[in-house]
């Protein structure tokens, strides 16, 4: 009962500070007015229509999982099994542009990373499976004062589908590989200039 009350309190607290539920309807309400009929039908087919009309979409493929990887020693990305954004780009003819922000993982420290505890790592992974959100166990709620620099690369040349609008799994995998290479090259080009630790490296899971 106490845990239920705590979850309700946290839900209203985060709503009060401006957070929204990461559902298709919530995202639709951010894009359209609340009384628009497009709100309730905001889904992947509608996203395709937005892209075909020239809108840009910013996607973080790693999602909540990447928050658990924050470390001062490495920049870890969850990308190798994230193919939905590539398939969407191929099916609409949109272009993928690699973007990376240096310094983000230096703003907080986590217990799971600080002491390499497998018990804490298992707990945070189980929490994400049950509730659908990650729970980084921060050593301090106050972020460290570090510079964050965002660099933008050139659009990636994707593999054009043989059947327009219907990319195959092989075409998606090949395009993801090209995107991964482009993102890695972008990181390697700028890491010595913008990383707080010159020895920091990029790890793609």
What is this structure's SSE topology?
Blueprint: H1 2-16, H2 24-31, H3 44-52, H4 63-67, E1 74-77, H5 84-92, E2 99-102, H6 111-114, H7 118-131, E3 149-152, H8 169-194, E4 201-204
Parallel strand pairs: 1-4
Antiparallel strand pairs: 2-3
Key terms for this structure?
2 domains; 8 helices; two-stranded parallel sheet; mainly alpha; 8% strand; two-stranded antiparallel ribbon; 205 residues
Description:
It contains eight helices and four strands. With about 200 residues, it is mainly α. It has two domains: about 1-40, no CATH class; about 60-205, no CATH class. The strands form two sheets. Strands 1-4 form a two-stranded parallel ribbon. It has a two-stranded antiparallel sheet with strand order 2-3. Helix 3 packs across helix 5 (about 85-90). The radius of gyration is 19 Å and the shape is globular.
